[in-house]
Every structure is written in structure tokens, then in C-alpha cells.
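Hey, resending since the last one bounced:
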Amino acid sequence: MTQNGPYDIVVIGGGMAGTCAAVAAARRGRRTALVERYGFLGGTATQAMFTPWRGFFAGGKRVVAGIGQEIVDRLVRLGGSPGHVSEGEGSAVPFDAEVLKFVLQELAEEAGVSLLLHAEFVGEQLRGRLIESVSLHCREGIVSMAGRRFIDATGTGDLAVAAGARHLRNPSSVSYRFSVTGVDHAALRDFVLAERHQFPLAEFREDGSFALTGFRDAASEWSRRRSDLAPVETFEAVSDSVPGNAVIAMLSFPSVDPGSIESVSRAGMLMQTVPPEAMTFLAETVPGFASARILVTPPQFGFHAPRRIEGVIPVTPARMMSGESYADAVGPVAMPGSVHTSFQVPKRSLMVAVADNLLVTGRAILPPVALFSTNNQPAGMKLGEAAGTIAAAMRS
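The C-alpha cells again:
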């Protein structure tokens, strides 16, 4: 087995939380490795097209700044996002997933992070209460990577579970999005304005972008036709300023067990067959989609909190709703579905009882109610940066 390292900090998972964790640690002078199973960073944001981001603000106050805002600023400079735009009573950040891939890699490389792409975590070597190394599968075979501190940013707590951390495992619904081109934005706008009662959210912006949640009649008919899928009350359509383009969210698959290869495979096979039928359905039922066609289908669907790691202080819905404060809080996180409230996450929620040199960050420590589907990725950015900062300050 090939041996790599030792690194000061090894981050498993190159999504938004993992990237922010690695950058934060490397900027503090720690020799940091970031392990990602795909060939690019971004996690659900780039793999599954979960745009826009929501959760940078709560109650009119900013709750996510730091590296998360730096990512937004870089996207804006490169034309990959309009930045923070109004959305109902709150705000959102639409972004181009392809530009985001570049921004995240540039950010990591500038910080001095060692990127290990196309490498997947498969196991760990634990001695007493310390993780000594992790095993990664890549084209070379199994590679061992030694480290002094480890951050689990897999989103499903894979490293923490392998180390024996307490966790809750829940069958999860999964969402699948796809992008389309050829949408007649003017015809779609006319339809939305005429059927405004069908749309809880209808935001058309001066730059030509829009954010729509609704299409209630079409969603009802789609759920009737495809009773094998999870029923949906609304569809979501989000567009940047590129004429004719949009990302569509209308597919939700029933309970999927993320720990079962058969269950995940069935969902994966289904998600490849449904988009063409969905595209035909939209062309028949929604004005503006008559000439639209599929542009991209992503390689990944979005799990909704399939597994939650219980830290020293678990983040629970009751604690979220109570407004409880902590002396070691890493800061407030926006409450999903609300533009007015936030909740505190203590540092101890990132720590697990089984390993002294392991932190868990991102959605794996949050209950489903905290995620608002997976669009509350700014929470992951904040928790990731906190994990990297904490790990950099930990004693060896």
C-alpha cells in the first residue's frame, strides 16, 4: 500500500464545506490535503446543480461571510453569478456551476491546499482515540494517507461512521435537477403573470434572470402521471441571465437508503430515464417550453440528510427552535425556510466522542429541517470554515 503524508490536516470531501475547511486550515499555515472522489470541487452545488444558494442572511443580518462571501465575490467577478439578489422577502445567490468549479479550485490552490481528486475514502486506521491514517481508492489501488487531524466533510459522515461515531441513519428522499435551453423567457413570464396564484415565488430581474416556485397545476398533473415518484406540490425553475437557459427542479424520488447499493442504484437508473419524459411534459403543459430541450443532466442527485452524526452536543430540531446560545458557538446559521431567524451551532457539535483528532462538518451534523433541501449550503460553508480554523488550532 502506497503511503502519503503525513499532512497536518486531511479533509475528506470536496464539497462547499470541505473546500472552505481546507482553505481555512491552509491559510493558517497547516499542510492540508483535500480528498474528493470526483474530478472537481463543489459537491452538491456542482454535481447536482443545486442553485441558488439561500442562507447568507437571516433577520436582515448577515450570518455567513468569510470564505463563503469570498466565493460569491469571485463568481461575480467572473460573470458566474449576479451576487445577492432579491427573492421574495429574502435573498439568494444564483450561480453557474461550471464557473464555480474553477473558482473553488483556484481558491484551494492559492491557499496551498494539496488536491487529491478521483480519490474515494474507503477506510481508516484508528489507534486508541486517534485516527492515524485513512485509506483511499484511486487508479493506483488503495493508498494510505497519514495525518495529524482529520475533517469529515463527506456530507454523510463516512469517516466518522467508520471510526465508530454515534449516528442516525434515515431513508432519504432525493431530488434531481437538470438544465434546459431553448426556453422562451417572454412567453414563460406572460404565463406566470397571468397565473400568479400558482406561484408562491415569482421573481423576474432586470438582468433577465428569474426564480420561480409554483406551476401548481402542472405539478399536480405530473404527480398523477408518475405515481411511482414522490409527489410534488410545486416545480422550481431558476435561470441566470443567459437567454433561454434554466435549471429545473421537478423530480423527487421516494425513500432511498444511502447505505444500500441496490437502493441507490435503482434511484440512479430511474433518474436517467425520467428527464426526457419530464421535458416532453413541460413542453405540453407550460408555455415557453415548447422548443426547449435538455442541456445537461448532472452525475449526482441530492440526498436530503440521509445520515446525521451526533456530536458531543448534537444539533437537534429542538435545540434549533429553542434559540439556545453557547459560549463556544461558531456563529449563527440561517433557519431554512425563514428569512427572519437563525440558530446557533456550538463547536462541540463538530466533535465526536470516539476520536480526539476528528471533526465533522457540513450537512452531516445538521438535521433535515436545517437543510431546506440542500440549498442552505452557506451553512455548510460557514461550518466548514469553522472546522478548518478549529483543526488548525488543535494541538497535535
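Residues 7-170+305-393 form a domain with the FAD/NAD(P)-binding domain fold (CATH 3.50.50.60).

Sorry for the duplicate.
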